[in-house]
Amino acid sequence: MTSPGTTGSGAAGRIGAAELAAYVAGSRLFATGAAESAFSLAADWAGSVIGDGVEVVAAGDLPQDVRCVAVSLVGSTTALGELLPSGDEPARAVRALEGRLGGRAGAVVALNLAAENALIPLVAAAALGVPLVDGDGTGRVFPLVEQTTFALGGVPATPLALAGASGEVVVIDTAADRVEELLRPVVLSVGGWAVTACYPMCAGVLARVLVPGTVSRLLRAGAPGTARAVAAPYGVRTLCRGRILAVEGSTGHGAELALPSLPSSIVVRESGGLGRLVRLEAHNEIVLALADGAAVAMAPDQICMIAADGGTVVDVDKAAPGMEVEIMVVRAAPVWHTGPGLALGGPRAFGLPL
Amino acid sequence: MTVAELVDAGPLAGARMYGTGENPVHRVRIVDELSVLSTVTPHTAVVLIGAAAGGGWAVEMAMRRAWEQAAACVIAPSGGLSAGSGAVLAERLGVTLIFVDEDPLVTAVRVASAASRPEAARTQLVARCATRLAEAGTSARRVLGVLNAELPGTSVAFVDPYGQLLAGRAAGAAGHRPRDGGPAPEGRAGGGVLAEVAVPDRDGDALGTLVAGGAARSPGWPSVVRAVLGLAVAPLVAWAAAERLSASRDFVHQESLAERLLARHARPLEEGHGHAPESPRTADGEEPDEVRGRAAALGWAVRGPVTGFLVLPADGVTGAEAAGRAQAVIAATVGEAPVLRRGGGWAGWSAAAPDELAGRLARCVAAMPWPCAAGAGAAAVGLDGVGESLLGAEAAAFVAGPGRVARADRMGPAELLGALPAGVLKAPATVVLRPLLAVDKDGSLLETLAAVLDEGGALRAADRLGVHRNTVTARLERVRAAGFDLEDPASRLALQLACHVVLR
Lengths: 354, 504
Prior knowledge:
The complex is a heterodimer of chains A (354) and B (504).
Chain A: E1 13-15, H1 17-26, H2 36-49, E2 54-57, E3 67-75, H3 77-82, H4 89-101, E4 107-110, H5 116-128, E5 132-136, H6 149-152, E6 160-163, E7 169-172, H7 179-189, E8 193-202, H8 203-209, E9 211-212, H9 214-221, E10 236-249, E11 263-270, E12 277-283, E13 285-291, E14 294-307, E15 313-314, E16 324-330, H10 339-345
Parallel strand pairs in A: 2-5, 3-4, 4-5
Antiparallel strand pairs in A: 1-2, 3-8, 5-9, 6-7, 6-8, 10-11, 10-16, 11-12, 12-13, 13-14, 14-15, 14-16
Helix pairs in contact in A: 1-9, 2-5, 4-5
Chain B: H1 3-9, E1 16-18, E2 27-31, E3 44-48, H2 56-68, E4 73-77, H3 83-93, E5 96-100, H4 104-116, H5 120-136, H6 140-150, E6 154-159, E7 165-168, E8 193-200, E9 206-214, H7 221-249, H8 251-271, H9 280-283, H10 290-297, E10 306-313, H11 320-333, E11 340-342, E12 345-350, H12 354-367, E13 372-380, H13 386-400, E14 405-407, H14 413-418, H15 422-439, H16 444-455, H17 458-465, H18 469-481, H19 489-503
Parallel strand pairs in B: 2-3, 3-4, 4-5, 13-14
Antiparallel strand pairs in B: 1-5, 6-7, 6-9, 8-9, 10-12, 10-13, 11-12
Helix pairs in contact in B: 1-5, 2-3, 5-6, 5-7, 6-7, 7-8, 8-10, 11-12, 15-19, 16-17, 16-18, 16-19, 17-18
């Protein structure tokens, strides 16, 4: 396995119609929360606009002062499958942000590369005719817009533009810690999902704060016959294989916390080895893994369940007793393991006082 | 004091425990956040509150850290962790986990108090039971009330030898197997039988059994339950004795009890739908049955094969005082049995088979202050059939004659004829037959008439008498000439009866 890409290591290549399949497959390797119809829709959308392809460049290879914007889907992926996009949402969002800031965006970067969120920035880059930066703002996926390495690097998410499927455009300009609070009701009122353009910054700053090389890594990992671990730049380990015993509601996650979904708890009995009792504490995503009561993995590392049959990532909401799963832990980018990184994406960010 | 003892008999009574609970408890530590656990010392009962009990994950992490610190047990509010994974983890780590329903802070204070006085808790439970049993006196209902109130998480039932609930909670007897081999109910909630203690009556026979059911929360719990049940035996024996004493003092009291028992069992018989031997209203009743309970205290047979009997005084002795004396004699000779006034005598039923019962009735008849006859009915399958058995007993007693015992199941037409009051009927029979007797100088006409009626024809009558059939025909002509119409069925029966009485 190669080491993670560095910020200025030459052209990463191009995503054309031929590479799209690998990119699509790579985006699912560790991604949870994907609704099947919405994901197919996003993949078809990307296929319909890819044309001659989108150039993938390392942030360091762009001129320092080129403005880059992060593009992502916000809201519910299920809603995306039910309220179809008109097709110009990514472009409208980026144009609205340009209108607020003055000047054009020269490149698009993904906020994260999980499922649809890898594809919408690609659609935006194709629609705007700009390159896609090889890297992203998390190295994994987090539920909140402000949970990014960009924010850790001091770049604010705002001003932020939203484009909804019915032609709405909303620009939000507020303090960093108010973004999620303002964003969520707006997303609901435009139909449950929207495309956002945010974190405007110049390429020089982006090269410092992004998790680099992740787009080209997905392209490699998504190629047929490649090991899943290739998609994890900082390493991945298998916690255990086992059978889900119970899925329970959970408590003790801090009442004041405002995350999109309710906490739950998945109890897994390890099939081989020590036969441990593994508890996966989930709040939007799996935040903590206990084996016989001992913490063996927790956020900001990404914990996911891979179905034993089919090899797809099992969504927390779809976990059911009796399922055979493999529990894998994807190590987060080093910046997430710093003090500020843990504060933003560690267990306390999910309400667990650990 | 071990964890198990805290749960069995002490301040945690009624809590759910997972794990062996064999670790000794020396002190208590209240833990409100997980980091505190790193300072917990061995043999500590860890009481989780606040954030440390805030969710399944927190309780599991606390159990893990308690195990690392060799704590005695983890006490958590119920609902914090699902029982299933709690049990699995308790077993895997060897850490005892206890769920309590009350405020954990209250629990902590009580555990601390018990830990400082280790020997007291178990003794306290037993002593408290003894005191409250003494207050309950000789009432089966109150005794069982005390047992069920003082033994937490445990249901206690008092059942008769047939497995019927006399007092207490039906759930307690769920796993009990009665002595008549009936199948123990399966699949009832609350676990199996924790303890069983036999309650003898004053003669040493089985009066009933105290059965405690529920989940064995720890290895030591059944022995505690058994000790407490043992305390209840004496009050229950006294209860039965008191019931018997009052029944023997008051004939009417026990008679009305017997009538009520019979009445409730009579209904299926009258409906005639071939019910099971036991009345469905009582067979598996969940409620303790007061009538049944008192009958059991008196030692009466209330189930299984029973045989009815009737003791019949020759000279029509009646009245409550005589009945009381008769009841005393019956109790002394036949055994504990209900006594009811029936058909001019005293009826009852017994668990003894007709053979055995006839023997006892013979002793009874001999011991009675008045000349008496007695009859034993046929064996009935249960109390449903005792009415039929009593009818047989009545008939048998009527047939038996003073000083004797007859059995309905051995009774035929000969016995019926034998029971005819020949002395009473002799005069009317003579009057009826007078026209014949007037012409019958040597008695041959009467003899021939009897033979023809008994044998049903002249030919066989001739055989019996050893005469020619023409002789019989000739004599019958003379009988007819005396005014008797042998073709009329009513006349024939009356004549046959009259011949029987006169010739006997």
